[in-house]
Amino acid sequence: MTDVISEQELKALRLRIDNLDEKILELISERARCAQDVARVKMASLPEGEKPIFYRPEREAWILKRIMERNQGPLDNEEMARLFREIMSSCLALEQPLKVAYLGPEGTFTQAAALKHFGHAVVSSPMAAIDEVFREVAAGAVNFGVVPVENSTEGAVNHTLDSFLEHDMVICGEVELRIHHHLLVGENTKTDNITRIYSHAQSLAQCRKWLDAHYPNVERVAVSSNADAAKRVKSEWNSAAIAGDMAASLYGLTKLCEKIEDRPDNSTRFLIIGSQEVPPTGDDKTSIIVSMRNKPGALHELLVPFHNNGIDLTRIETRPSRSGKWTYVFFIDFVGHHRDPLIKDVLEKINQEAVALKVLGSYPKAVL
Questions:
Q1: Which of 11, 169, 255, 311 could form a disulfide with 182 if both were Cys (CB 3.0 to 4.6 A apart)?
Q2: With b meaning 16 or more CB within 10 Å and e meaning fewer, what string describes 133-143?
Q3: Phi-psi group of 336: left, alpha or beta (phi > 0 → left; psi -120 to 50 → alpha; rest → beta)
Q4: Secondary structure of the chain as H, E, C letters
């Protein structure tokens, strides 16, 4: 008798799920039609020859935050936001498919960051180098680019910082990605005879202690990307690669050991670069480049206005200036939007003491 009741209850629950699926399908289709109407209204209201802006980072950040605030479970906030991220991505593609360049090849963490931020309904293009991503955006070949800027273990990505000195780009957003490294092998790998391990130099550094403990005598070979490492392993019997889930899936490799990064909180921050300024959301960051005169106390003069006004600095990096020997520029991230009256006042004070100041962009804090 109990089995009969259980089967009836299960049948009723499945029927309820089917009905809910139909309602979800109907609502998603209605949302997609609204997106098409938005595109029509934008196109009709613009002067002839002017291109409409379909993707609004501040609007999407607001929607995702609202979803997470209103979520009542049992799915956690981030999982719920990811579902809506994909719905929004597909609906936006009906208005205009976004073109996004990222540091390639396919299977890199930068591609994972691009998909996390924009969803899977974008046209994504892998680039061989960070500078190429900047050039694609500058040329208008793509709408946005995604580049790594800092890792919680290894620090700043200097190629990205240097590219901001050479290109006139606007930072439109940021993505934070938890980085999990795995030791990957191919179907032909003889796991008892591994003599070399491929990976990107930063990934090798992030797994240094684990490698010292488990493969102390194996050659470590730095290559251009983790995806490149995974690709090489497919054709070799005596090698392994350190890479992430996306590379493992793309190249059909097996995880010999999982999550081998030395620090469990290992994360990388990526920047979204484009050409459009982002209006304030109330929960923003700003990135600037400042060049100071080479004199004692220059850094102190730069930081005092932030301190006096209680502005939270989240990052400061130094890079050699291209304008002269032993001169430097400072990359600074802080909380707030450059249009905020207080931030405006602080930037004006800094500009009075600086050789040059450039606002790279204000953008919503990472939601996902």
A1: 255
A2: bbbbbbeeebb
A3: left
A4: CHHHHHHHHHHHHHHHHHHHHHHHHHHHHHHHHHHHHHHHHHHHHCCCCCCCCCCCHHHHHHHHHHHHHHCCCCCCHHHHHHHHHHHHHHHHHHHCCCEEEEECCCCCHHHHHHHHHHCCCCEEEEECCHHHHHHHHHHCCCCEEEEEEEECCCEECHHHHHHHHHCCCEEEEEEEEECCCEEEECCCCCHHHCCEEEEEHHHHHHCHHHHHHHCCCCEEEEECCHHHHHHHHCCCCCEEEEECHHHHHHCCCEEEECCCCCCCCCEEEEEEEECCCCCCCCCEEEEEEEEECCCCCHHHHHHHHHHHCCCCEEEEEEEECCCCCCCEEEEEEEECCCCCHHHHHHHHHHHHHEEEEEEEEEEECCCC
pLDDT at 118 > cutoff 70: yes
Q: List Cβ neighbours of 43 (8 Å cut-off, separation of 6 or more).
A: 52
Distance CA(84)–CA(111), nearest Å, equals: 19
Instruction: Give 58-88 pLDDT, tens digit per residue.
Output: 999 999 999 999 999 999 999 999 999 999 9
Longest CA–CA separation in the chain, Å: 88
Residue 54 corresponds to which tokens in the numbers above? 């379909």
Cα–Cα distance, 198 to 253 (Å, whole number): 14
Cis before 74 (ω within 30):
yes
Cβ atoms of 151 and 138 closer than 8 Å? no
pLDDT at residue 353, rounded to an integer: 85
pTM for this predicted structure: 0.88
Determine the Cα–Cα distance for residues 45 and 301; give it in Å rounded to an integer: 48
pLDDT tens-digit map of 294-317 = 788 888 889 999 999 999 999 999
The mean pLDDT value for 267-295 works out to 93
